[in-house]
Design goal:
Helix content is about 40%, strand content about 15%. By secondary structure, the chain is α/β, with parallel strands linked by helices. The strands form two sheets. An eight-stranded mixed beta sheet has the order 1-2-4-3-5-6-9-10, sandwiched between helices. Strands 7-8 form a two-stranded antiparallel sheet. α3 links the parallel β3 (about 85-90) and β4 (about 115-120). It is globular.
Amino acid sequence: MERMLLIVFAIIISLFISTSAAGEFNFEANLHRRSPDETLCNQLIKPAGYSCTEHTVQTKDGYLVALQRLSSRNKDLGGQRGPPVLLQHGLFMAGDAWFLGSPEQSLGFILADEGFDVWVGNVRGTFWSHGHISLSEKDKEFWDWSWEELALFDLAEMIHHVHSVTSSKVFIVGHSQGTIMSLAALIQPNVVEMVEAAALLCPISYLDHVTAPLVLRMVALHLDQMVLAMGIHQLNFRSKILIDLLDSICDGHIECADLLTSITGKNCCFNSSSVDFFFEFEPHPSSAKNLRHLFQMIRKGTFSHYDYGMFKNLELYGQLNPPAFDLSLIPKTLPLWMGYGGHDSLTDVTDVERTLKELQAKPELLYLENYGHLDFLLSTQGKEDVYNNMIAFFRSLGKSSSS
């Protein structure tokens, strides 16, 4: 644990250095400097034999977020597109998270080969998205958001775009933070009316039973507050200084798989090569405010709007504490599916049960005792263990209805 804490403090120091003295370093690993042809379609999807197109959506607060659309490599489908499915990634990830295994193992590819019209979301600040209409990524205002804005602006706008293009209601699939976003978005009547059903992998709305040792230690040390107090707004773990640090740590000192375990819990079903490929694309940047919001949830046991403190809460919300997201407002008629694991240190079974009690709907559930948080993305047997069950749930609802 002491060595893990050294990593955490090194991360904080490197973030401070990269924020306060960015001009002194050439961050070759900052993937915002991609050339135009280095898109997610060109990097991961087209090389696997799938057609893929890039889309950009502007949110109501001016961010330019990327969507990719892919379809089956199976020519027997005759170019027919099935119901639209929007995939929403988790924290410090982006749309590439759905394509980090073979076509037979990765959910994005599997859904396309099953005939679905697959759309891949990438929230603001991630390497595949495209900035803002007026703000630079160097501006602190660019990073003034948490998962709340990702839900109410980014995800809502992506759902609207897919619904508009396809003229069909949309199936939503979220993982981890993507499930927090989905639940918050589905409370909004103007969003849920465009959604056919939602499948939530490692569903999160409450976090007060998190058991991940490194996460709990960071929460106890109030590292989220320290980061913001130091004037750090962007959390970019792919700065050159940090990549060099992690390379040295993982080279004979600490297994990077163990580092993942300390954050997510023990994962049963992927191998070291999967971890290596994972770190080729992850992590993506997020905001310090987003981390603070998640840590607030862990400390307070709430599923609420961002807590700005008593005086600003009064100004913004008209009350001392931020209002809760009311899960009972998600319509009872909306079909839900949830998959979660017994070794997941972030999505605790107790917190899932609390979520289930607050929902009007009775979701279909898939519980896998030996699965951890990342197994639901990276398991070599995910199709058999998880995805076939999810696809059967979608198929049981019939063809997506037009609107």
